[in-house]
Amino acid sequence: MPVTAHAASPPEPGEPAGRQTRPHKQPGEPAGQQVRPHQPGQEAAGAGAASAAATGTDGAAAAGPGYVAAGPGDAGAAVAGAVADAHRREWAFVLAATVRVTRDLDAAQECVQDAYVAALDAWARQGVPRNPGAWLTTAARRRALDLLRRDRTLRAKLPLLVVPEPVTDAGVGEGAADEGAAVIPDDRLRLVFTCCHPALAREAQVALTLRLVCGLSTAQIAQAFLVSETTMAARVTRAKKKISAARIAYRVPEAAELPDRLDAVLTAVHLLYTTGHTAPDGQELVRADLADRAIDLARMLTGLMPDEPEARGLLALLLITNARRAARTDRQGNLLLLEDQDRSLWDAAAIAAGAALVLDALRGGGGRPGRFALQAAIAAVHAEAPSYQDTDWPQLLELYDALLRAWPSPVVALNRAVVVAMVSGPEPALAEIARLEQDGRISGYRYLPATKADLLRRLGRPAEARLAYQVALELTDNASERAFISRRIAEVSR
Question: Where do the structural domains in the chain lie, given as residue ranges?
Fold first, then answer.
């Protein structure tokens, strides 16, 4: 199956079906739940902000050296916006630097949260620092050192109550951490590998990484896993309790341990990108900060483990998918389906780089390419097509068949149904949608009814299409996607 390069993006139901969104509340977890079933190469189918701090003045906050004063009358809003922006951009850096002091993920997280709270007050009085990340890192590390000093004092005063901690495989001393730091030079990537501890269940590894390192909310992580927020909160809580009960201390893995953790790390980075590619909620279609952070991590992974084909496959997938970012909305911010995008706006250099990585990833799989390499190949086939109509749909169907064997996810099956519609027509695809509805594992996934609605629309069944679009609308929180689905409802209602 030769794969070349050009433009990018995987299959879609009149748009694609691949992103995840808030599922209906479910009494239990679906059987055979897939970790991170979404594929970022696809568009939407059918489609800790900080509060303002009171400054007590109407004028600009006083700014000292290294600080930027807020404009008259807008100090509170400016500070709140600066803290929220620093949370989006700097959280991973600040947490990674702090955990090197505490050697404890939970304690580091508390110290970083305290630093952000302190910033609301300090920046309102002093002005926003020119380097918010450095300010927050210093504040968090000072808080961590205070905690460590208090702990040492307590241990000195209560020696009879102190039980020496055993040295175990899970947590060893400073030397091992330093050795791991030499293997993984970037703080953020080091923390990702640390969170993906093999003593935890795979879902817990990925969820902790997204929560602690990437700063995603529990609700956003639940959407990525297609489970309820309550279910995901319970998983994170159980993981933290296991870390405490098993005395799993902060320790950066050594080089020999990295391959066993790689799949969980790739999964976490992929989910981070998909959350940024189509934001679960809000006014903007894309969370550029999350998408860019995921691409940075994927680049570092390929540099750290250049012989791993799945690492190259993930980077290829993200590069090719991200190359379409500028064409995904029109000037008014309206969502554009893959077939309606101006392909001249796609980033040709990123597509070429991704396509070269795809070939390496497929060749390096020993005849059995992994799920990321196959998804990247799918994105590359879309990328090489001069137009949507000229896409090599039969080749895509072959690739989806291979992907379904490597990764038997219901979301993969949904995206495959979109390609079936292009190869054999909407009727056979609609039959596959019916089977997925009966399966029930993605009943709360907004792209399932959106895909069904598009197929019904193409079959000239507007009343049924309208009902399916309305179900999709109820499951959708992103404003851009909601506007698109609303326009579709208006079209089929005429």
Answer: 67-162, 180-493
Fold of 180-493: 1.25.40
Cβ contacts of 449 within 8 Å, gap of 6 or more: 46, 468, 469, 471, 472, 475
**How far apart, in whole angstroms, are the C-alpha atoms of residue 7 and residue 384?**
5
Q: In the CATH hierarchy, which top-level class contains the domain 67-162? A: mainly alpha
d(CA 403, CA 97): 38
How many CB atoms within 10 Å of residue 196?
A: 26
How many angstroms separate the CA atoms of 468 and 450, rounded?
7
**Integer angstrom CA distances of residue 325 from 37, 133, 241, 313, 445:** 21, 27, 40, 19, 23
pLDDT in tens, the chain (494 residues): 433 333 333 333 333 333 333 333 333 333 333 433 444 444 433 333 333 322 233 333 344 556 555 544 466 788 888 998 888 888 888 888 888 888 777 788 889 989 999 999 999 988 999 899 899 999 999 998 888 887 776 555 555 444 444 433 333 334 444 455 567 878 888 889 988 988 888 888 999 889 877 888 899 999 889 888 999 999 888 888 887 777 776 677 888 999 999 999 999 999 999 999 999 888 899 999 999 999 999 999 999 999 999 999 999 999 999 999 999 999 988 999 999 999 999 999 999 999 999 999 998 866 789 999 999 999 999 999 999 999 999 999 999 999 999 999 999 999 999 999 999 999 999 999 999 999 999 999 999 999 999 999 999 999 999 999 999 999 999 999 999 999 999 999 98
